[in-house]
Fold this sequence. Notes:
By secondary structure, the protein is of the alpha+beta class. The protein has five helices and four strands.
Amino acid sequence: MIVGKWHNSCIYLQKKISNESRKYISSLLIKRENVMRKIAFRFFPVLIAMSFVGCMSATQHRQDVSNPEVDRISVGKVQREIRVGMSSAQVVEVLGSPNMVTTDEKRREVWVYDKIATDHAYSTSSGGISALILGGAPVGAGVAGGGIGSGFSRGAGASSTSQRTLTIIIKFNEQNKVRDFAYRQSSF
Length: 188
């Protein structure tokens, strides 16, 4: 019955206050309501926008940190572009510098490309609902206001790690042309 008590207080105050004071208090209340409306209409879109900040999936996070445009060594690239008879300079153009260069018993070069990639993905999400109830009442010649708030929030997260390896072995002949190549890929 808070509303009833407040209403009775207002009636009592209205009887005690002159017409001029009543007009002044009414104008203050109207101004306060207009200001509160303006604040609410300006602040509400900001609250809505802020509620969606950070709502990204693990896939979106991974896309943000990885760059598929960068030339990567892959099995497909080896199958498409490495051919028997290519020069060592052409191999470097396609795959870059090797990790290891050795020679066999006939002093022919053997290049080894050994690539390891580890992918970490972590995703977290949280959400909640909050409420703030504002109120006010005329007191004397001013306005007293107050508010109460409550909320509920919840969060969850997940992570995954995977690893890939790719080993490419390219054997050259005496003229530094590719005579043979092999590759091995694994994922776990």
